[in-house]
Amino acid sequence: MKAKAEHKTNWTVMILLILGLITIAFPLYMTIIIAFKQPSEMTNSISGILSLPSSWSLDNFREAMRVTDFWNSLKNSLIISVLTVGLSIIIHSLMGYAVGRNKAHSKFYNFVYLFIVSGMFVPFAILMMPLAKQTAEMGLGNWVGVIILYVVFYMPMNVLLYSGYLTNIPIALEEAARVDGASTWRTYWKVIFPIMKPMHATVAVITALSVWNDVMTPLVIMAGTGQNTLPLAQLNFQTQFGTNYNLAFASYLLALIPIVIFYVICQKQILNGVVNGAVK
Amino acid sequence: MRKGKKVIGAALAGCMTASMFLTACGEGNENSGKTEIEILQYKPEAATYFDQVEEEFNATHDDIHLTIDSPNDASTIMRTRFIREDYPDIIGIGGDINYSYYVDAGILADVSDSDVMSNIKQSYKDILEALEIVPTDGTYGIPYVANAAGILYNRDMFEEHGWEIPTTWNELMTLCNDIQSEGILPFYFGFKDTWTCLAPWNSMAVALAPADLCKQVNRGEANFTDEYREVAEKYLELLEYGPEDPFAYGYNDACTAFANGESAMYPIGSYAVPQIQQVNPDMNIDSFVTPASDTKEGNTLNSGVDLMFAVTEACENKEAAYKVLEFLYEDENIQAYIDDQNAIPCKEGDFELASQLDGMTEYIESGNMTDYQDHYYPSEMAVDAQIQTFLINKDVDAFLKKFDSDWMRYNRDIIREVQEYEEENGND
Amino acid sequence: MRKMNDRNRTFLLITIPILALFICFNTVPLIRGVYYSFTNFKGFGDYDMVGLRNYMDLFTDSRVGRSYWFTFRLAVCATIITNVISLILALGLNSKIRGKSFFRAAYFLPNVLGALVVGYIFNYFFTYILPEFGKMIGSEAMSGSMLSNEKTAWIAVVIVCAWQSIAMNTIIYISGLQTVPEDVYEAGSLDGATGWKKFKHLTFPLIIPFFTINMVLCVKNFLMVFDQIMALTKGGPAQSTESISYLIYNNGMSGGQFGFQSANAVIFFIVIVAISVAQMSFSARKEEQL
What we know:
The complex is a heterotrimer. By secondary structure, chain A is mainly α. Chain A has helices spanning 2-6, 11-36, 46-50, 59-67, 70-102, 107-118, 124-137, 143-153, 155-166, 172-179, 184-195, 197-213, 216-221, 230-234, 245-278; strands spanning 238-239, 242-243. Chain A has a two-stranded antiparallel sheet with strand order 1-2. The longest helix of chain A is centred in the C-terminal third of the chain and has 34 residues, at 245-278. Chain A starts with a helix and ends with a helix. Chain C has 12 helices and no strands. In chain C, helix 2 packs across helix 12 (258-289), helix 3 runs parallel beside helix 6 and helix 9 runs antiparallel to helix 12 (258-289). Chains A and C meet through helix 2, helix 5, helix 6, helix 7 and helix 8 of A and helix 1, helix 3, helix 4, helix 5 and helix 6 of C.
């Protein structure tokens, strides 16, 4: 702490950063006040929209929770997100390991690598119909199917990240374990997997963020199962002929909380993760 | 490191348990012995009403168990369910081109033998028949409720200034001038949301172009350049009386502005009333038929089927489906729906209409109505965006020319089908 | 030798099942999609094979052409703006300031706000607040809504896209900056390197790998832009902001053009893969040079 205090705070930068924060604070301010207002307080005049709500009542939040069946939708969203993130970390890191360790000297693994990474660029719209049909035929037209699809969708990006990170881990570490007689499988779990912990955090945040906000996959795959995720339930607020922005904003604020908490927890890990991942 | 492995093990075990638990839950709600009927309807805003109907039906029927689904983005859900061949028993959709496609694809069953059919107003039955791409023997949908588009106006403001409801195009233009001279904006538009461009378009086109224009074009008997010219020209005149930059405001902005008394009139459908009243619950709104024609007699109400029910071909128990439909079409249920949604019933009978439709009652009662032209437009042609482009560039000729050429491109397969039918049946 | 076999076998045992999963849920549906691109499938009901008709149509459809022009213009501008601002922001956040964690968390927020919220707020900003500001400073050009003008609407989309993606890019750059060892700077300052020179010759070369990651992610995200279009303009005004993904989704899924838009998606996929491969190999060469 003392060493830090010796450095002079760069006040110019600090002021610029605070000014920059306006671009974040302003939308956030609007979101919060709209979430507290009543529909009858909505106007098209600037002073009207920027003014504080007439009362800080939590009615909108209560109503939004009722309309979205909040706890149930939250539970579904949490289950899907947690399982997807867990499976992604296990499966994608394994794949990243196999590919990352071999693509430099093996044509086969290099092909597999490019094949999977190019999957990142397939427009979802073209896959949607065939996937709806296919998952139904396989009996996966439910949340299990959604998780499997997520694991596949985010594989390209995560394999890219993991295999990049692995180039930074000296192969000597594995060799040391091998000399002790451990199998490759064991070595992976005992040595490599724990070392990649920072990368796991990066993958966890990126994947969780995408899954948490995604509407299309559950909409298409879980249609007719009667189960909602939070983003699906939030569609309730908008129909073609009318949108209740006040309830919608309240609901979005509620949905924001878990993911922000998750980000704050992972923040430190992410930074470490990318640091070691991409620099050779 | 040990710890890490244990955590993963625990996580995996957790996944397994959770999945077993959830699967078990999903299968737990089967009603043995009862016939299951599932309705999938596309109006999420009416979900509360349908939940109530579902509850009442199940309470009074022992042999049938009814489920009504009112999902968001129902059109995507319907399509994905069709592609997985997981058809609901009954679908509730609008009377637009999707209905035409579904009939054409053989997804829907003939319901002409249903008892409810006999009490439905002929004008709405005709509207559905006309939507079929090529004429068929059967009837595939039962109209439930309709909506109407015209011009909403601020009743209090009109009374205060002593303005009269116009019945011809000239009267409308005079009225707009009067309103403007008082320093009030005559119309508000929300053209940033392209679909709202269609509301005035439809309500003028019903009076100025043949009702079956699109079908005539498909048969090669007419073109849009001739028939839509007057609509396009009058639309530009209307634009003069709107806000300075109508393309800056969306539907929601326009509803809010109209609700706050920023304009005297708002050319949109009856469906906008709830959104307007959300902002101003006490507003006194009425509506009138857009007087696009130069004579009073030339006008007709722009009204189409907003919600209809159709039984799918895949439905295993048609009789049970009919029973459900009979319940849905009972007078008090329809009345409850139109109270809830400001709708117009498609059934004959003594129904009480919302006060916002007062100015249109005459047309509704006499059955003088014509379907929306856009119910024939394929959505991928984006006619709404083309109208928006036209209103920005104000080039009538270019717009109409593109309309004709785009129509041929986007409707290629339909035109071929229609012409094959014409050749086979020699309709001349 | 036996150990090497164990290693190879393990790698294969890992690769094959995961690859199979990937093929099953990505490649197989893609192939089905490619198949539909040769039909006039609407998304339901019967369909006919139409050969190459969809592909021929693609090249004569001015709407598709314009969507490519718009999307690429957007992608190039947004990529540049995003990268420049994130880099500056990252330098700022990495300098000697107080409350680093707070700032980093705050600048992350745009990433998490939902599309409906972002759409509403920016619509409001461009429709009411910015014109009011324009009138106040007496600027003719700024007193109209940017979103209602064909010439400026795409700029508004660029702004919102950049605003949302700066967060992620900044984090990646910050991490990059932290790998620059202090002694590099010390050595540099002995040579008298300051400001821009210091950045250009000392800092930037060291974070080139992060620059590459960001460029690839940006180009990919912006070329496939969809949410921001739906939230801001829905393709308007006058169809001037229809992105490729917007067309594919809107006309293929909601409309009855599934076959045709599948063809569009196939071509788009090929184009975007080609660009990314070119970009990655270009960056790789650049990295070697430095």
